[in-house]
Structures are given as C-alpha cells and as structure tokens.
Amino acid sequence: MTPFVAELLGTALIIIFGDGVVANVLLKNSKGNNGGWIVIAFGWAMAVFIAVYVSAAASGAHLNPAVTLALAYLGKFDWSLVPGYLLAQLLGGMLGALLVWAVYRQHYDATEDPDLQLATFCTGPAIRNYPQNFLTELLATFIFVIAILFISKPMDASGLAFGLGALDALPVALLVLGMGLSLGGPTGYAINPARDLGPRIMHFILPIKGKRDSDWAYSWVPVLGPIAGALLAAWVFQTFLS
Questions:
Q1: N or C, which end of the chain has less CB nearby within 10 Å?
Q2: Could you report the per-residue pLDDT of 1-10, keeping only the tens digit for each?
C-alpha cells in the first residue's frame, strides 16, 4: 500500500466510523438515535484506533493536515510530500462521508431538521462566536498535537524506544476520546481540517432531502484553527520540550 492510498484509506475510515456514529445518534429512526455525547466520543476514538492501525505502517498515519504540517515544520517529514498527503486526506474525508450517506440515506431523508443532517457531516459551534470558536479549535489542536508528539516516539528510562505492538494505535485513540469528553463541547473538536472540510464538501454535493446550506461562513474555523494550533504546538515542542 502506498502512502497516498494509506492516508486516503485511513482518513476515510475515520469519517466512516466517526461521522457514522454521529449519524447513528442524530438521524431519525436510527437504532442508535439519542445515544448521546459519550457514544459519539467513543465512536470517534474507535474510528481513530482503526484508521491508525490500518495506515501506520504505510504512511505513518498522519490522517490530518494539521499533523502533517506540524511534522514538516519540525523536519520530521519532507515538505515535498506534504501536498500529496493533504490531497489524500481531503479525498479520504470526502469518500468516508459519501459512504456514511449511502448507508444512512433513508434516515437523512426522514430527518426534518437540516441542522442535524449537517452535523453528521461537519462540525459547528454550540455558541457562534468566530474569534472564540477559532481560539477553541486552536487550543484543542495545540494540546492534541503536543500529546501526539510525545506519544509518537515514547522512550523508556534508558532512552530506548518501546511500543505496544498491535496496540500502538491505542494511545492516540484514547487521546481522541479524552479530547471529545473534555474539550469537545464548544465546537465539536474538529482538530482536523480534512475531517471537517471533506465531509462539508460532500454535504454540499449530495442530494439530501430538505438540507440546508453547508455553513461555509463557519468552514474556515475548523481549517485554520487546527492548522494554527498544530504549528504553534510544533514550535513550542521544538523550542521548549524536545
């Protein structure tokens, strides 16, 4: 499997399981309807676990433009590879959203609330305040990437790298679970531009009965906020923590 395919497939899996659990909880007549926030948070954690496990060997399991840019800034990833990774992640997000829609198509049509339909594709703020929403995504991604940088190459007391074998993806999944439970309330913790933009594009394209606009006025927040937070995390890590 090439790195491009791995990033596309991994990001698609994140959306299939992540947006899939949101659709299961929010859409009318679904068997998981009204399952609640904890179900959603666990669903996203499992999404990341599966996606990282599948793609890590081939691509390093970035699965997130913010992570890719942070690693490139730190010199841990070749800048010439960045465009291909970003494209794969965006296409993966779109493909994942398409498959979720295909599975839940009848439930989308049965759901009269267009805001709930949109929420199964992309994030939105609980309280709309663009500067605060941007700051929330920046800080959440800052914390996420700082943790990722420590998790990615854990060391024991002797300075030797160690791993968890088949469970190497577990720490990242638990990190995503914690992010959702702790910091997900204000904006839905996008912390990943491809996770938000790819599905938002598909919401715009797909035929969904009674759908609203795709909230492009907000769409810059879950793109620029995570990128800014990731680059800040990379700078702090390089300057003070490495």
A1: C
A2: 999 999 999 9
